[in-house]
Amino acid sequence: MAEASGVPLLSTVKERLREGKLSGFHCRKCGRTQATPMVVCANDGGREIDLVDLPDTGTIESFTVQVISSEEFINDCPFAFVVVKLDNGVNVTGWVGSVAKAADLPIGTKVRFTPSYKPGVQFERA
Known about the structure:
Radius of gyration: 15 Å
CATH architecture of the largest domain: Beta Barrel
Helix content: under 10%
Mean pLDDT: 88
Oligomer: single chain
Order of helices and strands: EEHEEEEEEEE
Distance between the termini: 30 Å
Shape: globular
Structural class: mainly beta
Number of domains: 2
Number of strands: 10
């Protein structure tokens, strides 16, 4: 695991995404796990942070349909920018393709992480 002063590097998380693995940050002191990078644990101020594997399945908690996008996603429009609650309870943001309206992706829909050459975390319906 790549670290800077004992903290896993974000670049390692991006490399793992390209390898098809979702990663998160875990505080050894209190056990908090989150997808967003942390140098210091928000719960207890712990600095012993490890990189951990996250489950690749979860459910849609929230989303917004994107009909206009940056160049990287122009061929994927419309799509949904999503908040997914992974099976271990950790929330991750990402996107799901082929979503034109809210009825296409009801809250609670089961999704699975799917590796992509595109930026960000892509999910598909499970």
